[in-house]
Automatic annotation (TrEMBL):
Sorted UniProt keywords: Kinase, Transferase
InterPro entries hit by this protein: Kinase-like_dom_sf
Protein name, as recorded: Serine/threonine-protein kinase-like domain protein
Species, as recorded: Nostoc azollae (strain 0708)
Entry GO MF terms: kinase activity
Length: 35
């Protein structure tokens, strides 16, 4: 599971803000692009 405030390893220009949903296909997160 990804942690809020942490950058993505594959795309470090994006920072996780929150989980917005989960289901049979996986988890969806809200992320923000770092400027």
């Amino acid at each position: 599971m990804l942690q809020p405030g942490k950058p993505l390893k594959q795309s470090p220009q994006y920072v996780i803000e929150e989980e917005i949903g989960a289901g049979g296909f996986g988890v969806t997160y809200k992320a923000k692009h770092k400027d």
